Structures are given as C-alpha cells and as structure tokens.
What we know:
heterodimer, A: mainly beta, Immunoglobulin-like, 5-stranded mixed sheet, 5-stranded antiparallel sheet, B: alpha+beta, 4-stranded mixed sheet, 5 helices, 21% strand
Amino acid sequence: MKLKNILIGLGLFMLFHVTQSCIDDRGNYDYMDKEVLLPVTISGFEDTTVVIRSILNIDPVLNNMDDESRYTHLWYAAPSVTAGFAPKRDTLSREKKLSFEVTYESGTYNLVYELRDPKLDIYVRKQVLMTVQSDIASGWYIMKEENGETDIDYIAEDGKKIENLIAASGQQRLKGKPVKMAYQPSRYTPVIENPDGTTTRLTNKKAFHVFSDQDIKIFNADNMDLFYSYEDYFYEVPEKCEPQNCGVISSDFYAINAGKVYSIYGMSSNSGMLGYAKPGMYEVHPDMVMSYYGVMVFDKVTSTFYNTSSSGSSMNLFSEDSDGGISSTNMDVDMIRMLLRKEGNPSTAFAVMKNKNKNERYVFDISYSMSAYPITDIDTIPAHCEMPEAKVMGTSLYASCIYYSKKEVDGDVLKVYKNVKVDNRESELKRFPGEEIAYIVNVTSPYGAPEDETFNHLVVLTNSDSGWKLYRFNVIGQTPEIETEPVVVYSGTGKAGYVMFRS
Amino acid sequence: MKIKIISVIFLLVVITIGCEENSALEYENEPALYFENTTYGQRDSVNHTFFIQPDEQMRDTVFVEILTMGYPADVDRSFVLEQVNVGQPGAAVAGKHFVAFDDPEMVSHLVIPKGSVRKSFPLIVLRDPSLELEEVRIELEIGENEYFKPGIDVWTNFVVKTTAMAVKPTTWDTYWKYYFGPTWGSVKMKFIVDNTGFTDFEGGSLNTDYAYYLSSKVKQKLLEYNANPNNPDRPLKEADGTIVTFE
Lengths: 503, 247
C-alpha cells in the first residue's frame, strides 16, 4: 500500500469521526437579530452629577416600544471604582420612572436602567456615570445650642448655608451644649451593623467627631450618616459622661471625657471606637495640645504636665530641663487655660497659669514635641492685667498675643494681650454692643490656596438675643491688630459655642 | 514500506483500544475516624484550666473535633473513644477528672449522627480538688467497632490536659506581653481575667484597639487596687513575692 493510500484512508477515517461527532448535537444554529427579538432602544438620560440629599428624577425614553406591559423595569447603581472587593449593586427602583433621593457618599457610581422581557429572559440596558457630590465640604461649621440640644449650622465658602445640619439629615441632635467638633478627613474605620446582624468594618471614611457637654456623636462627614452615638462609641462606656475636648491630627484622634484621656491610633486596625482611658490617677484640664507624636495635657490633681501617644497606654512625664528650669511635674501652679498657637512638630501654645500660694499669674510659652522639656519661657503677667480672668481666649497664629473677651455693660469687648515684657500689654480691638463673645480663633486659608482665596482672619463668634453671629476680621500682617470692619458676617439662630473651619 | 503499514495499523489499533469504554476506579468505602488537625484550629492536644472559670463552676466542656472517612451513612453510627494512659503517672481518672465514656451521660455523644461526617465530641472535665495542685492528662485514641476503625494513623491520638492552676498562654511571649508586660504569673493572670472578663488567650490576635482597651483597663485597675488601703496584700504580688506589673 502506498503512502498516498494510507493518507486517504486516514482522511476518510477522520471525516467519519467528524461526521459522527455532529450526530445528535442539538445545538441551536438559528440566530435571530436582537433588534427583532427586543427592538426597544433607551435614551433620555446621560452621565449626570447630583448632590447628596437631592432628588434624582429620570424618565427614560423608550423607542420602538411595542407592548410596554410585557416588560419589567429595573434601576440600580453600583460604585464605579472599588478596591479589594467587588462592587455591590443597589436596587433603586422597579418602576420606569426613577425618583431617587441621593443618600450615597460622594464618589462615582454606574447608574443602570434595565428593560427586561421576562418571558424570553432577555433585556436591553443603558448605563451612565453618576457623580455624587456632598453638599457639605469646606467651610464653616458653627456648633450651637437650641432648646437644650446641640446642632450645627454649615456655611459653605460661597456663603451658602445649611441650617441645623444634624436634624436636616434626619439624625438626632446631641443633648446639651456645644463643646467641640473635629473633622477627620480620611482613615476612619467604623464598624457598622448590617440588616442581617453581621458587621462590616468600613474603610477610609471621613468623619465628624461632635462633642457636646452631655453627648458624643460621630457622623459620616459626607452624608451625615451616624457612625456612633455615645453609648456605642466606647468599648466600655465611662461611668461619667462629660465630654470636654477632642481633636484629630494626622490619622490619630484624641479625646478628653471627665478628665480622662482617650485616643485612637489610626495606623493600626481599629473600629473607630474609644478604648479605656489612659491609666493613671489623674484628672486633666480640658485643654490639650496635640502634635504629630501625641498630646500634651495638664493634670489638675498633681499639677503636672503629661504627654501620651495615641498608640501608648501610659501617661508620660516630660524630661527635666537641662538648663535648670522649673520642673513640669508637681508644680505650684494651677492651669487657667492652655491655648494652641500652631499645630505640628513641635506644636506651640501658651499656658496661662496661676500660682497656688500667691497672687501671681504667668504665661508659659510651650513648645511640645514628644517628651522633651516643653516650657521655653515663663513670663509673669502684670497684676493689673485682666486677660487671665477672661471667659473666652484665643491666640494668634503669627503674633505673640492672646485675644480675649471683656464683659461690659453694653456688650462684650474684644481685647488683646500682647505677650511682650512691657507694663501696658492690653488694648481694645472691637466692641460688640448687645453681644457676648463665645469663641475666638485665628484661621488662615489652607496652604496652596489660590491667591484670590487666601486669607488670615480673626474669627469671632458672638451670641445675642437674636441668635449667633460669626465675624471674620482681616488680621493686619503678622501683628495682633485687626481691621475693625469685618470682611464678612454670618448669622444664624441659637446660641453658638464653637466654630470649626474645614479646609 | 511494510514497516509504515504495520505502524499505521498499530496506531489504529491503539486508538481503537484507547477509545474503549473507560471504567473508573471506584472508591472502596472503609469508614474510619480521626481527630481533626488544622493549622489554625485544633492541633494534636488542648490545654484546659478551671483557673479562668468562676470558683463555683465544677464542670466544664472541652470539645474535641472528630472527622469521618468514607461515605456518610443514613443511620446513626456509634464509635469508640478510649483513654490509653489509664494508671500512668499524671493520668486523669475517669469519674474523678472527667466523665467516663461509658457513663450514661456520655453514651449519646459517642455517635456520628446519620448523614454527618464530623462530630464535636464534648469531653466533660470535672473540677477535682487535686487539680489545684496538678495537671492531669487524658490521652485519647480512636477505637474500632462495627462502624469505624481508626483512620489516619498520625491523627488517631489526641491529648486533653486539665488543671485548676493558671496556664501560661502559648502566645504570651510573642503576643500578650506587648499588652500586659513580659512577666507572667498566676496572680497576674487571675487579675487580668477578674478585671476584664477576657479569657480567650488562645484565640489568636485581637483588633489592636481592643487589645489596648484590655491593656489600659487592667493597668488602671492595678493602680486602683494598689491604692486601696482595704487591700492588705497591696502592692499585688505573686506567691513568690514578685510584684505584679503590666509594664
């Protein structure tokens, strides 16, 4: 047999196999054009941008519709970008017209409309990009009290105002009067309970830590969802609820409740909750100064400055002064106020102190970084100065001075104490007839802001019978002086106690 | 040429034979049992202590995970568990240190339920006064009966140790010392348990913030204990006089 015949034989053999393999194959070789089966086309909406808490209304246009009753409708959305997990779709509606109150956090989402023929189980869909923007972002957050409860009025940088942000977001206001709020721009990782009882640790959230004198609430800084209330904010709820201070620096968080110091170390896994107070038989003054390495506080029991870090569980003493300065432990002074000047490494502050044994008051110049001796200068305040008795004090970011309020018959006066070694240190800056000063802070525009948006303002918050007012005064250069005509004045209802600028 | 023809025929024969109906190898059911052994779960032994239990608790349960080999059955299948160190020094005594396997209370537990391929066997340990001063061992082995024989050889033995003394957690020197300090002692251990309620020292790493919560709380409680004049043994000490610290 020739090779040619063998090859022919093999070819026939293969042909036989190929033919045989097709017997009983019930595959579908009839194709219909999708335009024939489901000729409907969807239009009438494109990529869109919406603001949280607004209503998104869409009525899709369906062309080539034959019998609408045979179709089902489905609207859903899912994050367009996720990292480490699959995007989860959220059903928005099963009606043709979409009316959706936007409750999502800011970000981008794929918004999908699907028209399905359930009989044939085929569908057409249209997907667009939905960009959600928060209606609360940079601007001024004024904490105020009304009817024994604390809420927040928000004023955007363009002047647009949202009153009663907490109540307007469907949340319960805090009990009591405003103390302080802090904005955490990232890396907050609260644990939330799902409807099925399981829990999920959220990642990289923005948060507002809001403290009143009787309550604490932690909100999502995007959409004001509640992360924690006082009762579930602690691993073990403290016996005494007396929130006094809070602050965020880098990814760390510090708080003082009833004289005890708490922290969250943001660089390790955490649930965004507070643990047990830093151990010690201390009771700290409500003022604190944070730096990138920890927080500095003053123990009223032993008249001692302490520092502690967010990751540590001990209250640490400062080093002694190598140049023989007074020890920062067991001092013969009480603290009146500790006022932050600049936050960083080191952080600077003024501590206004009062001698326990004689009628002398002092300004301690503080430079805080880790456990190095923190007192750089001590100046005795002339006896006639009124600043140490002031109810409200604030500092300048650039000038060595302390702003304070002086109560007078026709209203409060804004004054300044210049920290210079002369006898006449105090002067008047501005009168507020009929108003009571509640808070003073020096605020500047964030680093890198456009030239026409840069500012250096002394912000004064006042209250009167008609509500609160927030004055923004231009600071003249790097002096303690201000232009007495405010650049802008905001106002609102209620009795304000604190203002935070979110840059 | 002939060689080529022969080769082609040979190949055709091989192909034809190769396409013959293939009879798969079938599993021969031979039911057996063995103790589960996993990297992050049960290993070859377990340590139990009444130390972390309230003083009035006289019984406790240690669950021993047992797995089957072979097909599940549609009937309950009893199995045999034996203590193989009876009479040896340090051996637990049935009825004194644990409920004997032939006790009526235990008989119903020595069963693989129908349809099941595993059993969490509840070994009930008893708080005998002798455990305050010693640790005893229950060396277990899978026995053979009409339903099961011992399975994987290296996993047919298991040891349960029980005592009422404090037991140093196996990860104390690699994990817990960062939160409670490097020293370990029974008084310190009891102080941690009494003041935090936390007992799962063998359960792996905790969330860092929760571990710090435990650490801070126990440090604060020690400060308060040592400052309280009503505590005659302050500062808190171990039996040998070592002062308890958490630093």
